[in-house]
């Protein structure tokens, strides 16, 4: 039995269909530089103004996986929260995120298998109301009964 979950963790026993959680994050040049360093993805479309100017985006854009990381943050911090284990994630990048943009990232519960502790979540990121990422996550949720 493990009942010392941090505030914000929602155990499988309490997860309901349709529950949603979200965050907002302002994406900065520093975020993009740090992500390039950590991931070792130094694609110039993210880092080089001159290079990026001549692409279809006409300027630098954030790594898609940086934006996807905000979905991971909502899942790992809020729904279900601490103790959650990622099982899978689909992603479609529908529009660019540029330095200076504020990303709204939201997840919504669309499936629950209580016996297996599996939870399925629709994932969405928007910038100024425009969809930039959609996908589906499957996670193993924490339980009050097991640590
Ligand atoms: C590896 C890293 O270093 C690189 C990165 O991380 S890049 C950053 C992450 N990616 C992005 O920011 C790209 C965001 N997406 C876009 O800007 C656009 O989707 C696009 C430029 C890739 C395509 O846009 P466009 O050419 O306008 O395409 P259409 O809207 O005209 O759609 C044509 C058909 O393609 C389908 N489609 C479009 N985007 C996607 C997608 N991301 N995934 C899957 N399918 C996509 C769209 O539905 C249309 O299909 P249809 O059957 O013809 O209707």
TrEMBL record:
<dbReference type="InterPro" id="IPR002539">
    <property type="entry name" value="MaoC-like_dom"/>
</dbReference>
<dbReference type="Pfam" id="PF01575">
    <property type="entry name" value="MaoC_dehydratas"/>
</dbReference>
<dbReference type="GO" id="GO:0019171">
    <property type="term" value="F:(3R)-hydroxyacyl-[acyl-carrier-protein] dehydratase activity"/>
</dbReference>
<dbReference type="InterPro" id="IPR050965">
    <property type="entry name" value="UPF0336/Enoyl-CoA_hydratase"/>
</dbReference>
<keyword id="KW-0456">Lyase</keyword>
<dbReference type="GO" id="GO:0006633">
    <property type="term" value="P:fatty acid biosynthetic process"/>
</dbReference>
<protein>
    <submittedName>
        <fullName>3-hydroxybutyryl-CoA dehydratase</fullName>
        <ecNumber>4.2.1.55</ecNumber>
    </submittedName>
</protein>
<dbReference type="InterPro" id="IPR029069">
    <property type="entry name" value="HotDog_dom_sf"/>
</dbReference>
<feature type="domain" description="MaoC-like">
    <location>
        <begin position="18"/>
        <end position="117"/>
    </location>
</feature>
């Amino acid at each position: 039995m493990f009942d010392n979950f941090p505030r914000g963790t929602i155990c499988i026993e309490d997860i309901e269909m349709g529950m949603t959680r979200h965050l907002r994050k302002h994406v900065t040049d520093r975020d993009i530089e740090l992500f390039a360093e950590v991931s070792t993805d130094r694609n110039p479309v993210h880092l080089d103004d001159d290079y990026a100017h001549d692409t279809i985006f006409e300027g630098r854009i954030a790594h898609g996986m940086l934006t996807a990381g905000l979905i991971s943050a909502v899942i790992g911090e809020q729904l279900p929260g601490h103790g959650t284990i990622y099982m899978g994630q689909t992603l479609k990048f529908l529009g660019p995120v540029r330095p200076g943009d504020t990303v709204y990232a939201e997840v919504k519960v669309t499936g629950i298998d209580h016996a297996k502790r599996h939870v399925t979540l629709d994932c969405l990121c928007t910038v100024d109301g425009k969809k930039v990422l959609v996908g589906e996550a499957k996670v193993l949720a924490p339980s009050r009964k097991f640590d």
